[in-house]
């Protein structure tokens, strides 16, 4: 009886072990089969973008340094940083006392030259009349003609000197060549400015309506950029606003920083949307490339990479077949399939993705 009891217990233990192992295997297979996920190869439009950072800069001619063309003492300065000025507005005046004195001298010289010319003309006419009557010599007539020409030349010189004096006086009034905001002021009232070698700068003016974005595009993406492509960007201070722009130029010379090669791409800003954009603001730029219509595509996650090649695993019944694929553009989580997969096929999504 004791032996039969041990035998029964052994059979029960063996059956329990078999059931336990079977249950574990079943759950393992069930879990594995439930983990199999696939994605279908479909046709869709694929667009591509280039992401880069940039800086807002004034366009060529949008930032002007206004200075003086003559030396003198700054009598009045009508400019403060942040002021908005219009084209032709007076922003500074130099002391013009000395130049006004020279102008008066030139006016007097001109008046004397006119008197001398009138006298020379009368003398010449009289000499010509006497010569016709043979009452004076040819030498007297020639001398009167020479005096007339000399008086005419002196009058022209006096007129030119007067015009020059007027221009010099006009330089004492400094006006703005463009409309914009005063960005900096580099002189003060009472200072003496010297313009012997270079025009001293009074103020810098920026036209905030003429700004552009200088985008730093990586060398791996620069070949995709073309003039005319649409761009959008954001700035930190208006993070909820997307500004629009258009690519206008691609600089041929690279900018190398920390062994990273970038090329500057300029984008014209389409509009400020009621916001105030300022130079040197950092931007996050998205440049939209062309869109490829109705191409084969699959979610990016099933595509794996091994030793530089890309693969996709398709399911045929219970079989898994790994295929080498050639991919194109990526957009919104999808990858373009150029070759290796067919429309409608299902590609296995790896468990680790």
Shape: elongated
Strand content: 35-45%
**Secondary-structure element order, N to C:** HEEEEEEHHEEEEEEEEEEEEEE
- Number of helices, counting only DSSP H or I runs of 4 residues or more: 3
Q: Characterize the main sheet.
A: 6 strands, antiparallel, barrel
Give the uncertain stretches in residue-range form. 26-34
- How is the largest sheet built, in terms of strand order? 2-11-14-13-12-15
Q: Tell me roughly what share of residues is in helical segments.
A: 25-40%
Task: Report the CATH superfamily of the domain at 50-60 and 208-291.
Answer: Efflux pump adaptor protein, beta barrel domain
Which secondary structure elements does this structure contain, and how are they paired or packed?
Layout: H1 2-35, E1 37-40, E2 42-58, E3 63-67, E4 72-77, E5 84-85, E6 90-94, H2 97-132, H3 138-170, E7 173-175, E8 180-185, E9 192-193, E10 201-206, E11 211-218, E12 230-235, E13 238-257, E14 260-269, E15 282-299, E16 304-306, E17 309-316, E18 319-331, E19 334-339, E20 346-349
Antiparallel strand pairs: 1-20, 2-11, 2-15, 3-10, 4-6, 4-9, 5-8, 6-7, 8-10, 11-14, 12-13, 12-15, 13-14, 15-19, 16-17, 17-18, 18-19
Helix pairs in contact: 2-3
């Amino acid at each position: 009886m004791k032996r039969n009891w041990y035998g029964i217990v052994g059979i029960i233990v063996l059956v329990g072990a078999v059931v336990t192992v079977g249950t574990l295997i079943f759950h393992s297979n069930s879990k594995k089969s439930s983990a199999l996920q696939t994605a279908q190869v479909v046709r869709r439009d694929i667009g591509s973008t280039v992401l880069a950072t940039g800086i807002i800069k004034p366009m060529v001619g949008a930032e002007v340094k206004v200075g003086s063309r003559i030396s003198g003492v700054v009598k009045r300065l009508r400019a403060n940083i942040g002021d908005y000025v219009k084209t032709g507005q007076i922003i500074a005046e130099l002391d013009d006392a000395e130049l006004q004195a020279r102008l008066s001298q030139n006016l007097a010289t001109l008046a004397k030259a006119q008197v001398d010319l009138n006298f020379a003309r009368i003398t010449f006419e009289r000499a010509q009349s006497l010569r016709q009557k043979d009452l004076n010599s040819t030498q007297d007539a020639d001398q009167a003609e020479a005096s007339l020409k000399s008086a005419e030349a002196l009058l022209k010189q006096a007129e030119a000197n007067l015009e020059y004096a007027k221009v010099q006086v006009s330089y004492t009034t400094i006006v703005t060549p463009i409309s914009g905001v005063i960005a900096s002021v580099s002189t003060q009232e009472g200072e003496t400015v010297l313009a012997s070698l270079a025009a001293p700068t009074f103020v810098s003016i920026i036209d905030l309506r003429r700004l552009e974005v200088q985008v730093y595009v990586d060398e791996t993406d620069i070949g995709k950029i073309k003039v005319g492509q649409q761009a959008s960007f954001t700035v930190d201070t208006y993070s909820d606003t997307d500004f629009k722009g258009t690519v206008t130029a691609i600089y041929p010379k690279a900018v190398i920083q920390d062994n990273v090669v970038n090329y500057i791409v300029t984008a014209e800003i389409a509009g400020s949307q009621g916001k105030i954009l300022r130079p040197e603001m950092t931007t996050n730029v998205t440049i939209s490339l062309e869109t490829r219509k109705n191409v084969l595509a699959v979610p990016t996650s099933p595509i794996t990479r091994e030793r530089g090649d890309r693969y996709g695993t398709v399911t045929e019944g219970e079989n898994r077949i790994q295929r080498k694929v050639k991919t194109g553009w990526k957009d919104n989580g999808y990858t373009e399939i150029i070759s290796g997969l067919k429309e409608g096929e299902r590609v296995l999504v790896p468990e680790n993705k």
